[in-house]
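Thread: Newbie trying to understand structure tokens

Hi all, I'm a second-year student working on a class project, and my supervisor (Dr. K.) asked me to get a predicted structure for one chain before our next meeting. I've only ever worked with sequences, so writing a 3D structure as a token string is new to me. If someone could post the tokens and maybe explain what I'm looking at, I'd be very grateful. Here's the chain:
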Amino acid sequence: MYNIGEDDDLIQLTQIPQPDPLRPYPSIFTDGDRLFLAYYLAGEAGSENPVPISGIDAVASAALFSFNYTRMHMFGLPNDESLDQHPLSSRGLRGHGAFEVKNSSWVRRLEKTNKNYRQHAPERYDSLRHFIFTFHDNTFECLAEDYTLSIETESITNLMQKAADTR
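---
Reply by user tm_fold:
Sure, no problem. This is what the structure looks like when written as tokens:
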């Protein structure tokens, strides 16, 4: 993990569709430059008969993100029950959401880590953005330049296969 400084500013990305609170089945695939994240979406409010999701092969409404120029990522703990242990919990990080960290300490640390590289160019890190997605059992974070998002009615398995086929 990383330590945060006083400049780290957590912004909730309210335009990002929320994951299913119990069974989002987040999955990632990366080819070294791009990273794909897929998860099942929360059911529609007021739905009396939500579609049961039984695993990554279920066909349901899902989000597929393609993060471009991904430099680093983390995927795993903390889960929603231990999210208060995340360094950004005091800045408003909460479960089942999407966030961006402005002035990220993680980006600054990466830039400092690579400063001894002969062709180091600090300005290359100016375009990196720090994204955080919190799920029921996992937290996903990545440093990338940007992302595209598509919403599809598909299984996570098929979305990951599509991602692999676009390499």
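A couple of things are worth pointing out once you decode it. Residues 9-41+56-144 form one domain. The longest strand covers residues 60-68. Feel free to ask follow-ups in this thread.
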